Amino acid sequence: MSSVFDLVVHNVNIATMAEAEDSDGYGIIEDGAVCIDDGKIVRVIANCENNSETIESEHTIDGQGRWMTPGLIDCHTHLIYGGNRAKEYEMRLQGVSYEEIAKQGGGIVSTVKATREASKQELFESAAKRLSYLIDEGVTCVEIKSGYGLDLQTELKMLEVADQLAQFSPVEISKTFLGAHAVPPEYKNRSDEYIDLVCNEMMPELNKRGLIDCVDAFCEGIGFSLEQTKKVFDTAKSLGLPVKLHAEQLSNLGGSKLACEYNAWSVDHLEYLSEDDVSYLAKSQTVATLLPGAFYFLNETKLPPIDALRKNNVPIAIATDSNPGSSPCLSLLLMMNMATTLFKMTPLEALQGVTINAAKALGKEDRLGSIEIGKQADLVIWDINSPAELSYRIGGNPRYTVIKNGNVIVSSPQSI
Ligand SMILES: [Zn+2]
Predict the structure, then answer these.
(1) Angle, alpha carbons 262-151-79 (nearest 5°)
(2) What is d(CA 416, CA 80) in angstroms, rounded to the nearest whole number?
(3) How far apart are CA 287 and CA 270, in angstroms?
(4) 213 φ, ψ (degrees, to nearest 5)
(5) How far apart are CA 129 and CA 190, in angstroms?
(6) Which residues share a beta bridge with 29?
(7) How many whole angstroms from 308 Cα to the centroid of ligand 1?
(8) 300 partner at 20 to 30 Å CA-CA among 320, 396, 412, 414?
(9) How many angstroms separate the alpha carbon of residue 335 from the centre of ligand 1?
(10) pTM attached to this predicted model
C-alpha cells in the first residue's frame, strides 16, 4: 500500500512528548519520519532504515539525523504594549527609588499611557517584531493578554491587534482578556467600581466581538482581591469563558484555590503557593505555569514549590511572561534554561513545560503540544544532539526548520 502525503519529514530523531504510559517523558522515536496531510500528523514511523515501505509525498524534508520536537508554545505573554521601560530600568539601577519613578509617571501607569496613545498600527508593528523573535526560536503558538488599556476602547484595540497578529503571522494566537490587570489611574481608590466596569461592560462587549478566548486577572495585594477576582470569574463563567489567574506571585491570597474551583486552565507565577494549594491543584485539571523570567528580572528569592508540584503530578508549564515591566523577555529557550538553573527543573520538565503542558494551559492539548497522529503538524527541527541541549544552552538559536500546520514557516539558510 502506498499513499501520497502532502509532506514527509524523515531522518529525524523525534521527541514526541506524547504521554503514553510506557513513555520516558520525551517519547523518543529514533530514525523516525512524520507524514503530514491537510496540516495534520497522519503517521509517525520509527526505525526508517529497517522499513522497506515506499512512502510517497508531494514534499520531503530530510532532517539529516537532527532532532524534532513539537512546535513550542508560549502560554503566558503580554506581547502587545506601547513604549518600553528601558529608561526606567536605567534610572532604577542609578539608584532612583520606586516611589520617585512612580511619581514621575513610571511603572505600569507609563505603559498604560503609552498603550492608550499608540495607534493600532504602531501596536501591531511593535508586537509583530517581538513575535518574530519567538517564532524564530520554534514557537508556533503564543498566548497574548490585554491589560494595558484598562478602558474599553484600549482593551478592544489590544485584542484587535492580537486578532490581526493571528491573521497575518504564521502562528496561532490565543487571546486572553486581562482587564483586571491593574486599577487604572482614573479609578484610583475605587477598584470595586473598576471591577464593575470590567464585568458589566468590557467583558460582555469584547466577548460579543469574539475577541476573548480566556479571561485572566491579577490576584495580588497590588492587584485585585480574592472577592474581586471571584466577581471576574463569575462573569466569565456566565459568558461561558474559561479562566486563568496571575496568583501567589508576591504573597498568598488564595487565588490558586479559587481558580481551581472555577476549573481554570492555569494559575501562573506561584512563588508563594503553599503545600495546601498544591493539593488543590493536584485534584484539578489546572496547570501550574511558572515564569522564571519575572523571577529573575525582579531578583526574587522565594522559589515556587517545585518539589511539591512534582510529587503531586501537577502539570507544570513554562512561559516568557514577555512584558515591559517585569520580564522583557523574547526567548522561550532562555526560559527553559532558567527553569533548570533557577527552579532546578529537569530538561525534560522544561521541554514538557513549553510543549504538552503549555498546550494544556491554553486548553489546546487535543490539537497541540505533542507529535501524535491526529494532532496538528506543528514541528521544529533542531540542530542539537539531544533534547536536553535545548535547556542546556544559554543564548544561540539551534532552530533548523519550523513547520506550522504542515507548512514550513522558518528554515535555516543551509536547509534551502
Ligand atoms: Zn503576566
Answers:
(1) 70
(2) 33
(3) 11
(4) -95, -30
(5) 36
(6) 14
(7) 23
(8) 396
(9) 14
(10) 0.97
DSSP string, 17-74: ----TT--SS-EEEEEEEEEETTEEEEEES-GGG-----EEEEEEEEEEEEEEEPEEE
Ligand 1 centroid – CA 397 distance (Å): 25
Task: Please name the residue ranges forming H helices in 118-151.
Answer: 120-136
The tens digit of pLDDT for each residue in 218-274 reads: 999 989 999 999 999 999 999 999 999 999 999 999 999 999 999 999 999 999 999
296, 327, 392 from 89: Cα distances, Å: 14, 12, 28
**With contact defined as beta carbons under 8 Å apart, do 293 and 339 qualify?**
no
Q: Distance from the CA of 7 to the center of ligand 1, in angstroms?
A: 37
Q: How far is the CA of 246 from the centre of ligand 1 (A)?
A: 6
The one-letter amino acid at 196 = D
Closest residue by Cα to residue 343 from 395, 292, 300, 276: 292
Closest CA to 30 of 51, 47, 8, 45: 47
| Per-residue pLDDT tens digits for 11-34 | 999 999 998 777 789 999 999 999
**Beta pairing class for 40-45 and 28-37:** antiparallel
pLDDT in tens, 298-330: 999 999 999 999 999 999 999 999 999 999 999
Residue indicated by cell numbers 528601558: 86
State CA 262 to chain mean position distance: 20
Residue 55 CA, ligand 1 centroid: distance in Å: 45
Tell me which residue has cell 476602547. 153
Q: How many Å apart are CA 35 and CA 57, to the nearest integer?
A: 8
- Of 200, 267, 283, the residue nearest 236 (C-alpha): 200
Q: Distance, CA 77 to ligand 1 centroid (Å)?
A: 6
CA distances from 321 to 206, 239, 246, 328, 389 (A): 23, 26, 11, 8, 22
User: How many angstroms is it from 320 CA to the middle of ligand 1?
Assistant: 9
The 10 Å CB-count burial string (b at 16+, else e) for 150-186 is bbbebbbbbbbbbbbbeeebebbbbbbbbbbbbbbee
d(CA 416, CA 411): 7
Residue 266 three-state SS: strand
**If you search the block for the grid coordinates 472555577, which residue do you land on?**
262
Cα–Cα distance between 351 and 125 in angstroms, integer? 30
How many angstroms is it from 170 CA to the middle of ligand 1?
24
